[in-house]
Predict the 3D structure of the following.
Amino acid sequence: MIIDQEIKVKAMYRNIEHYKSIGYEINKGMQELSVKVEDLPINSHLKIKIRCDYCQCMDCIFERSYRDHIKHQSKSSIKKDACKNCRGLKIKEHMLKTYGVESGIAFHYNFLEK
Ligand SMILES: [Zn+2]
């Protein structure tokens, strides 16, 4: 899950229009603004902090660019984030949800039996 609720972004010519169009008030000369993470443009390279949905440990918070995060979420049927240690759990869950088995090997056997 994304930990940051809001994130500071530099007000730049090319992103100001985006934020204005979704209702942010931007004053002239503003250098920085706080925006909700979900309001970032989907191709934003800004790093967001993510906590593992499995162990939820505060020590394994990792960073990922918002753009990669969106990509990850759209690719996977499991809308959860996993740290390095828990990646296996996520794969298991994905296999279970997609194929009804826990691992690729089990999938292989099931497939052969049919
Ligand atoms: Zn974890």
Observations:
- Residues 5 and 38 are 8 Å apart (CA to CA).
- The mean pLDDT is 88.
